[in-house]
Design brief:
It is built from nine helices and 13 strands. The strands form four sheets. A seven-stranded parallel beta sheet has the order 3-2-1-4-5-6-9, sandwiched between helices. The protein has a two-stranded parallel ribbon with strand order 7-12. Helices cover 37% and strands 22% of the residues.
Length: 254
């Protein structure tokens, strides 16, 4: 067991819950940053801190040479990342690994802009770094489809396609990158298939034994809509491809 701890932000989330045991299995000591007090468990140390205020971050980074930054939310990611970068630089961290989103540099949405600003803060930090951009996870796609299929009609945004990827496979790739040397911006990671909303909804409804929904074509307005219709949220060439399909994921969840 390597005793120098790896600090993981967002270690209790969807991605972190897969990455933590993989790092433990690889023989690494794991420290998870949490906003709430937690008891240490399964060989994992939990430390309390808040990336928005900076409280507890210096202590969390004590003795750490590698950080896996998975924490994220609908807003404020850029500020949280800048807080982490400042503390990591002071702590002489040697490798900062970040999970971003495909299209962060191409789709003009506010939350994606925070991802891009976070990428830039890390790249400009002077800390050796690795950033992986991933497609939307199957889990988040399922949440979206569940909500949409409860509506009287199924809204189908024209030209919108998704390339969902399994969170377990993204976690495995991130662990590989975390245990390796800093690599800068690495190839995107996407799912094995591209679907529109109707194609995502169909197998979900079939597995639920539910009737199909009438489709309502809708148009995503503005520059964001234009970017989505152009496939700016997709990486069709040069991406690392996950193997688990949307249908296989659904079969295990629905």
């Amino acid at each position: 067991m390597t005793t120098t701890p790896i600090l993981i932000t967002g270690g209790t989330g969807t991605l972190g819950s897969h990455a933590v045991p993989l790092l433990r299995a690889a023989g690494r000591t794991v420290r998870v940053l949490s906003r709430r007090d937690r008891e240490d468990a399964d060989g994992v140390e939990y430390v309390t801190g808040d990336l928005m205020t900076g409280e507890g971050i210096d202590a969390a980074l004590s003795g750490v040479d590698t950080v896996l930054h998975l924490a994220g939310g609908p807003k404020g990611d850029d500020e949280a990342t800048r807080t982490l970068v400042r503390a990591a630089r002071a702590a002489d961290v040697r490798h900062l690994v970040y999970i971003s989103v495909i299209g962060a540099d191409r789709v003009p949405l506010a939350w994606l802009r925070t991802k891009l600003d976070s990428e830039r803060a890390i790249a400009d930090s002077g800390i050796p770094w690795t950033t992986l951009r991933a497609a939307q996870f199957h889990d988040l796609t399922l949440t979206m489809i569940e909500k949409m299929t409860k509506l009287p009609v199924l809204p189908v945004p024209g030209g919108l396609r998704l390339q969902p990827v399994d969170a377990t496979e993204v976690a495995a790739r991130l662990v590989e990158l975390t245990l390796g040397e800093p690599a800068g911006l690495v190839p995107d990671m996407a799912g094995p298939e591209v679907h529109d909303i109707a194609e995502l909804a169909r197998p979900y409804l079939e597995l639920r034994g539910a009737r199909g929904r009438l489709r309502l074509p809708v148009r995503i307005p503005g520059k964001a809509g234009k970017a989505y219709r152009a496939g700016a949220n997709l990486t069709l060439e040069g991406a690392e491809r996950g193997k688990r399909t949307w249908g296989e994921f659904l079969a295990g969840r629905v």
